[in-house]
Amino acid sequence: MKRSEPAIRVSIARKVFPAIADRPQHVVLDGVELTVERGSFVVLTGPSGCGKSTMLNIVAGLDDDYQGTVSFGKDTGKLSFMFQTPRLLPWRTVEENVLLVLDDDGPDAKARVAAILSRVGLSEAANAYPERLSVGMQRRAALARAFVIEPDVLLMDEPFVSLDDPSADSLRALLIELWNRRPTTVLFVTHDRIEAVMLATRLIRLGGNPASIVQDSGVDLSPDERLDREKVLAWRGRLFENA
Ligand SMILES: Nc1ncnc2c1ncn2[C@@H]1O[C@H](COP(=O)(O)OP(=O)(O)OP(=O)(O)O)[C@@H](O)[C@H]1O
Ligand SMILES: [Mg+2]
Fold this sequence. Notes:
Layout: E1 8-17, E2 26-36, E3 41-45, H1 52-60, E4 67-72, E5 79-82, H2 94-99, H3 107-119, H4 135-148, E6 153-157, H5 165-181, E7 185-189, H6 193-199, E8 202-207, E9 212-218, H7 229-239
Parallel strand pairs: 3-7, 3-8, 5-6, 6-7
Antiparallel strand pairs: 1-2, 1-4, 8-9
């Protein structure tokens, strides 16, 4: 069988932040080569400040000041991005915030929004404004917004950071469910090792200064096993034993 075309090819020869005032120039990434297969859930991890967000921003096209190339496969045109903060518009309701990313606001679009809000447990909050929601609910709304366009590629930068453990766990379970229902290619940044193991089908670790890929490992867990603490802890030990 012919192998399908990769979803994303990343080749960053060098990423340098130029000198500003008394700060010297900073070479952040050096020789980062990554090919992402379609439908894989790639978690990018590594120490704080090593360049994870810098790499994700380059892949997202938010930063084009680097040496190298990023290309997407033919069938990977629709991209969603989820950031550390939910970035909901405060003057729009939850439903309107999600509807905004669709091309139209007709009955079909509204039905899609209702379906995804139901899936993330926000049906009753559809007409609420973001300030009335808990932080966990705001992240659910952001997750609904990311998934409603049925993205081919989903880029996520620590989307569950600074939540309490139960809220973060329930969002991770929700993400696993959404991803299983409609596998999409995900590039997910986190420095939380448990979260990394729970979500990843492939774990990439950045390290060094400037950073490059120092580890590239598969994570072979079933959806149910991903919610099993003992299994996840065992994999964490195995994957990070040399970290
Ligand atoms: N606009 C910028 N100008 C100069 N230096 C920057 C800029 N943005 C990031 N950096 C530096 O580049 C390095 C990598 O930053 P980046 O935000 O990618 O790290 P990170 O791995 O995402 O860290 P964290 O886990 O804390 O989010 C850091 O040393 C940071 O200070
Ligand atoms: Mg970051």
